[in-house]
Amino acid sequence: MLLHRLTEYADRAEKLPPPYYRPKKIQWALRVDADGTTSALYDQRLPKGSKEKPLQTPAPYAYRSGKTPPPSLLVDTAQFVLGVPKAAADGRVSDAAIQEAHRRRDEYAALLLSWAEHHPDDPGVSALATFVSSGGLDRVKIPQEVNSTDTVAVMDADAGWLHLRPSAQEAWATQVRARKAGSGIVDVCLVCEDEGELLTTIPESIKSGAIPTSGVGHDAQLVSINASAHGRGGALQLVNTPVCETCGSRSMAALNLLLADDRHRRRAAESVTVWWTREPTDPLFDTLDHPTEETVARLVDSLHACPDPIIAERLDPNGYYALTLALNNARAAVLDWLDTTVGRLRNHLGAWFEDHKVFDGWTGSYRYLPLWHLALASGRWDDKAGKYAPRSAPRGLEDELLHAALTRGPMPARLLPHLLHRIRADHRVDAPRTALMRLTLHPNRTDKEQTGPMPRLDDTNQEPGYLCGRTFAVLEAIQRAALPEINATIGDKFFGTAMTAPAAVLTNLRNGANGHLKRLRRDKKGTYYALDARLADAFAALAHIEGGIPVLLNTRQQAWFVLGYEQQRAEDNAARAAHKAARERKLADVENPESTDAPA
Predict the structure, then answer these.
(1) Virtual CA dihedral for 247, 249, 252, 253, nearest 10 degrees?
(2) For the chain, which has fewer Cβ within 10 Å, the N-terminal or C-terminal residue?
């Protein structure tokens, strides 16, 4: 199914390169004069620090390995084109390296002549044949700065790339097919369902660097079964995946095109996700990392208008596909594959934003967090730097969150205990971590009839952990109001213990709050009455818990504690913001009495 969807995309792609061509950066251009007797080597490299884009062109490519790899037609490394030997780590060049460079140059020259002899009527090709057959490659003046791995491309006298000629493209495709000879078996292709000779391996690989990795980048094979232990029934390579040459090459060309397009890919630390649709549509995928009020509002409106994902799929049946890949040495590992519709995806994304939105008390609005920020918030908070430490999130968690967002699936089981551990260690609860708590506490995200925790303070919620968290937030607010200059609050000292064993902590802090309330009654009576009433209500709610304040909270109850604590703080912030705004309005009315409307 994956290869079938990729070949579908190849059929309508606008910039699909020729078969077995891949974009390459050109460092040097070898221009052959019209008479085929002279040439010039032009430096195409950019100076250091330049912001210009390097010269790049689609060029012949085929995956090659081994000690004696074959050459590419017209565009290859300086080792093949000019016979520049590869230096050792200490900079020395051995006799063996010189001999190998000469061998590669000779094979490169033979490949050029083999192509040129079939096109004697092309002046540029004839000039190249004359140049190569007369030993022109040996006579090229090679600057010292040419490296053996630099890419060299050949131009004609009119500065046209020879490898972009249709005859070169056809010759290269024929050459690759001959090298990657099929299995000899003629049967029905699994992708196009036409009869033809089946491939033994897919000739084209995924370009090095297209899949992020913390190790060394390699060209990667999407299907690679070269040991009996890897395949089903001990079968090797594509025996169990019958694919013809056309479908194999076009599907990989389409995949490489998607991987190179910022509009169709999302790169994580050690994986990449590409997406495409059967018909053009708005960039839904970008909303996950760049949510705006407008785009999220459209998704949420569509969710409310059509809460059933099956009905949403019928309303918008346009196909939507997403593929997540990671790198395992020279093999591409498929981490996730999504084959759905745009309508169902809109439904899932609308649910994703509804299930994690967080109320911001200071602004009185709801926040929608980017997926990358949610993943980052599961890592370690660096208090000195004032930000989350890069690459400290659990490995692979970002991919799991992405899967949950696209499929309306549950949160990974490991997220909640890990997040609670980080909150205890970092003493930090913020909007992205609160959003993750809402997602992890949802009873069943796949069931459209079930709802998760409220996005803001819920006075009807009687979860013991939630009530304990709210109470702790009130106690901390009392301390802050009485001692505004305090360096370490009870949250800094006791939050981790309170979220685990609230009974002893809340009881002791309640007794300690009496002194703070006395100070507030003396200095800030309005604040005193408000916080005293709030504290009384909080402990009254705790008194209705069967068995009293819990001695210990389990993992899920600890998450409710964190959510209750943060939502109570957000509500307190909203009350303070409203009070401040009302006071400023009143002050403005006193200073500018003429601005108020006079009674009729």
Answers:
(1) -110
(2) C
H/E stretch holding 515 reads helix 502-523
Total-model pTM: 0.85
Alpha-carbon gap, residue 26 to 294, rounded angstroms? 43
CA-CA distance, 427 to 490, in Å (whole number)? Answer: 11
User: What pLDDT, in 10s, does the model give residues 48-86?
Assistant: 888 899 999 999 988 787 888 999 999 999 999 999 999
DSSP label at 285? G
Task: Give me the residues paired with residue 334 across strands.
Answer: 325
Measured distance CA(200)–CA(590) in Å, rounded: 86
How far is it, in rounded angstroms, from Cα 223 to Cα 19?
Answer: 18
User: Which has more confidence, 226 or 171?
Assistant: 171
Q: What is the pLDDT of residues 136-163, one digit of tens each?
A: 999 999 999 999 999 999 999 998 999 9
| H/E element, 513 | helix 502-523
Nearest to 248 by CA among 166, 176, 152, 354: 176
Q: Which pLDDT score, from 0 to 100, does residue 224 have? A: 63
Distance (Å, whole) CA 437 – CA 564: 10
Residue with the two structure tokens 């070898």: 30
CA distance 237 to 484: 70
Q: Render pLDDT for 318-330 as a digit per residue (tens, 0 to 9).
A: 999 999 999 887 7
Per-residue pLDDT tens digits for 433-484: 999 999 999 999 988 889 999 999 999 999 999 999 999 999 999 999 999 9
Contact partners, residue 109, CB within 8 Å, separation at least 6: 132, 137
465 burial class (0-12, 13-18, 19+ CB within 10 angstroms)? buried
Residue with tokens 């008390």: 361
Q: Cα–chain-centroid distance for residue 598?
A: 59
Given 3-state DSSP classes, what are the helix, strand and coil percentages for the chain, each rounded to the nearest 5?
45, 15, 40
DSSP string, 397-462: HHHHHHHHHHHT-PPPTTHHHHHHHHHHHHT---HHHHHHHHHHT-S-TT-TT---S-SS--TT--
Q: 55 or 592: whose pLDDT is higher? A: 55
Burial 103-126 (b: 16+ CB within 10 A, else e): ebbeebbebbeebbeebeebebbb
Q: Is the pLDDT of residue 168 over 70?
A: yes
For 67, the token pair is 């000690």
238 near 187, Cβ under 8 Å?
no
Q: Residues 338-349: pLDDT tens digits? A: 999 999 999 999
pLDDT of amino acid 48: 87
Give the Cα separation of 103 and 99 in Å (integer): 6
Helices 2-12 and 245-259, axial angle in degrees (round to 10)? 80
DSSP 32: E
